[in-house]
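Look at one record.

>
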Amino acid sequence: MYFDSENLSQDNRIQTLLWLAVRNLVNVHTLRIIYGHYNLTRILLAAFLDRRRPQRVSLRKLWVESSCLSGFGTNYNDLLSPEYATGLESVRIRRLRVEPEETTARSKAQFEYKLARGGRHLAMHNAAGGFLYTTVDIHTPPPRMTPAIVLPTPAELRAKADAYDTLIWDRLNFDGPEIQPYVDSNQFPYPNLKSGPTNPMMNIIGKSWSTLTSLNLDWILWRQNGSSNDTIAISDLQQLSQLRFPNLRSFQLRNAVVPETGLPEGVFLLEDMFLSFMEAHTKIQCLAWPLDRFYSHLKPSPDVLVRTRVVVAHLRNVLVELRLDSFYSANGEMNTDDGREPHEREERIRRRRFISDFAAHMRKIEQLKLEGGIPRDEKRELVRALHYCRLKKLVLIGVTFPVGNTWGARGVDLKQHDPNHASDATHQLEEEDFDGILASYKNGTVVSDDFMFEPYYGWRAEAPFMQFIALHHAQTIEELKLCGYNGSPILSCLTPITTPLLYPLRHFDNLKQLVLSFWLLTSFEDQYRDTEIIQSWMDTRSPASTALVVVTPPATPSSAPPVDPAMMPRFPSQPSRQQNFNRWAVMLKTRFTPSALAYRVAEDVAPHLSEVAKARPGGVRVRASFCLGTREEMRSANDIFDLDIRIGRQGKVLEFVGPREEVEKGRYWQKLENRRWF
């Protein structure tokens, strides 16, 4: 999907009102544009980046996500002048396309569309386990689209949008007759617009060089799916590597985990293109970069090797947050990488070189995030390499459950509870060595005070991953996040291997927050009830739904028999119609309501938590993460729903909230406002 639709918010009156509103927003210090309409995004950027805008507080933070930066005009000439500076301190650009803007330059093999008023109907994922219908402008039809379908032209779409706008404004003029004259007397200055920069993303970043403290490029789409054209990506990255930010404290290039977002060949952080950049930025405390793109798989020159070691030696004592990702594996992460293809060997060399030459030298890292297709043994070695760091937060995210597979080989144990489960991902699941894990607990494992890191790879009959985390960091970790659904613990049906895998959690006395993926069994009478379960959760948040009560109407009473006048009549109780017993309704009420789920989660998790952590005021906050959604023959829509609970002494549930989808309003805003380094 593209976000440069000129069909949305095309009415000049809407754009004029927005422009006038911005001139009255004199206290704005943070601008977030998420799923912005193309026309509105252009005006917001042009208006807020105008340094002559009326303001009491300067704009300091800019967040642009799932929008289009291209083509924004300006009614001033400063943006393109060498002297202009945005004054921005933090820039976060997420899910942005930097591929060619011209439709003719885009790959015709892809399904290309934009949101549009009056276009073709299309079912889209609603981010809550289902679908919603909207209208789109299809530029490149899907290969299997019926040829007889006639797509509307841009002129027809604009005419439809004009008709809709006329209806809306007629209604507005009826309700508020003063709006139209006000707009007419304050027209947006279109005639004075000048063309914007040719590369708006890099222009905004470059014009912020003197004040920028945080730069975050997240899910940047450098190319189309299936394309290998890296011309634009290389140009942008070269331009970025040549910029200098004297106040930069956070530098993040994240989620290069799919082909569209992957870095071009030959781009490495500590060699070639970005080495001078890292040498120049000595204040960086937060760093995010693809794990296999710090070092090359080829031996560097002696000069480059010396320069790289100097950078690492400096970061050793200043870097406090490290985020690493790698290409996602469609079927999940393996215990160890034994791939024999040339590109697999090269990637493995680069990842393991980072562990030995970078991670092992760090001393101040407090937060570590590992995401994507990183083999489990390499995650283990990263945790061991950071032994002398006082880790407070550890985040592990993958396709499979990061600390072990609870479903058995190829998911055989899950199928005992859910025979209809069918997923290609289960074929990759490897069985845990149950006897080896128990033997490791019996024999005991300690870490010496003079620990010296020496990497080893492979997964032998040894302690589980959680035990390694506990041995090296249990005394300092306050937040632990273990996310990955394939092989995750099955709620209320824990397999025998689950307890040995999670047993080391009891050593984390300082743990304040734990996030765990759980597999929720939703099959009932050979049907998956995901949609009904999700709807029941939504209903608990809707006053209209919770106010409804089903009442069974009484049956018509039978006529009373004649009674002797000398006898007191005996009035029978009024008969009621027998209710049909709905087994699924009972199951839904007793197993899937928020309160029922909260106690089920507590029952599974509480025994593994430290008694010291649970006894702390407020207990341990546990987030149980479920993945479920619509399952249809030709399509599915799975989403994440999180249930937050607090577990106190004796495993008691102190409070719970949810389950909530990621886009639930309260949770979404909380995530936006609590984003670190923004």
Residues 1-82+98-195 form one domain. The chain has a mean pLDDT of 87. The first helix runs from residue 12 to 24. The CA atoms of residues 411 and 661 lie 26 Å apart.
